[in-house]
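Supplementary notes for students who missed Thursday's class. We covered one full example, reproduced here. Read the sequence, then the structure, then the short commentary at the end.
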Amino acid sequence: MEKTKEPLGTSEKKWFELFSNKARVLYPHTDPAHDYLHIMRVVNTAKNLCLAEQGNWAVVMPAAFFHDYINVPKGDPRRPYASQLSAEATIEYLKHVGYPEEYYEAIRHAIEAHSYSANIPAETLEAKIVQDADRLDSLGAIGIARCFATSSMMSRPFYSEEDPWAESRDLDDKNFGIDHFFQKLFKLVEHLNTETAKKEGEHRIAFIKTYLDQIKREI
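Structure (token representation):
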């Protein structure tokens, strides 16, 4: 497969290093589900998707680095607007560092549309790639780790003592960690945009189901 033309040319490495250094400051390890390591996984996945789907890396790279520029905690009433706040903050930062202005609006849209809670349709290939990369990080082995890291931060138990698998109650991922797999994560694969991401998403979902089968044996 022919690789995407790199619009940034020889300056790509400079921008990548600058954004990586900024990301280290923006995303502390106090929230393992949204820390610098999460950002770098999303960036790396986004680059692979960008190459496979022939997207514009000059748009995808900064959008992937800064999609969580403003991290609003779960339960905060501003949560649905976090991606829009992040988009605005990103554009201001890009202006400050002199990133090419021609990419601003595409970057803005890619960041705004990545969020599940914002419910903004991804209209461009680049927005679809960033959205897919972020959602893939909620699946598979890393997705499991992130789910339980979030459970700890929310002080919610891993599962319901009385009914772990919600056989006689409604799913409730605000109170039980395992419920989140069934209430949201298993549905994510249906909302992936690119064929490359869909294939990877199915693989990661299968791993989670195997993991949950093992939990059933242990509890």
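Commentary. Residues 1-5 have pLDDT under 50 and may be disordered. The first helix runs from residue 12 to 26. If anything here is unclear, bring it to office hours.
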